[in-house]
């Protein structure tokens, strides 16, 4: 659930008035890279706990599987390890307009516009969010356990990733490896949905190969996957309906910039409706208590806002386009990766994807 990370690469590329941010981010990234230890060296140490050792070996196996069986780019990623002294490696801020479902974008060289901005220090992330709130924007701050530098550096396995279940760890390694294989400038929605989809099918194929068709890991993951599919369907529908609701309010540009107290009350009530529908329609269907607790926090009337909704839309919005294409390609993951690479020069890869099946 914490796969937000490309923003941290962009953190190293800002110029001009963002110079202090650039310096802090570059220093922290350099410190992280300098802390890497060879994975072979770590695994040779007797004091490494058995659970930790198993996770590290599993991460390496997942990376190698992605390259061999899925056609992901061969890199030196995940050949090293960093033991962090904090629960998350970084913290990401998202923001959105309050009067419409529109993400606040940060513009960076190379990767283009992104709907999030990363910080290594949680206080810096909170400060950024507070500044954006003063501008009238919705905000959302969350911790990140893993991120990709898109091949610019050799990404290490992080101790924050070892808290994941075996399935989630493999899924995350493959997800981030997709980013290192392909990242289309200013197309965050497509990039993240592709990585999510490949991460899901890749992890399934990995454990089928490792444990067999009756894999207990896959059986456990299927329960979580069923919950995620329910959440995806629910949130996709709610986002579409809320987008239409905002558009039907008929706000003038001036009213959008300075919404009235009356509109903000209507908005609050409308968001509360989403939270109530979650409790009534979706919550009883969720089987995983871990996932239920997560959704209870994410979709509560107290926390729900446009920034939070758009952040989750980025990752779990309807993935059926990829399903249809995958079926058309004979459910061959390598062909799916090659097709995705063919979209690298497209201005609208989402539209091209829809035309392909």
Which characteristics define this entry?
15 helices, three-stranded mixed sheet, mainly alpha, disordered N terminus, 357 residues
Give a structural overview:
The structure is a single chain. The chain is 57% helix and 8% strand. It is mainly alpha-helical and 357 residues long. The chain has a three-stranded mixed sheet with strand order 1-2-8. A three-stranded antiparallel sheet has the order 6-3-7. A hairpin with a 3-residue loop joins strand 4 (106-108) and strand 5. Helix 7 packs antiparallel against helix 8 and helix 7 (188-211) crosses helix 12 (306-316). The longest helix is centred in the middle third of the chain and has 32 residues, at 216-247. The chain is globular. 38% of the residues are buried.
Topology:
Layout: H1 6-10, H2 19-34, E1 37-38, H3 39-43, H4 50-69, E2 80-82, E3 90-96, E4 106-108, E5 112-114, E6 117-119, H5 122-134, E7 138-144, E8 157-158, H6 166-181, H7 188-211, H8 216-247, H9 253-257, H10 261-282, H11 289-298, H12 306-316, H13 320-328, H14 333-341, H15 349-354
Helix pairs in contact: 4-6, 6-7, 7-8, 7-12, 8-10, 8-12
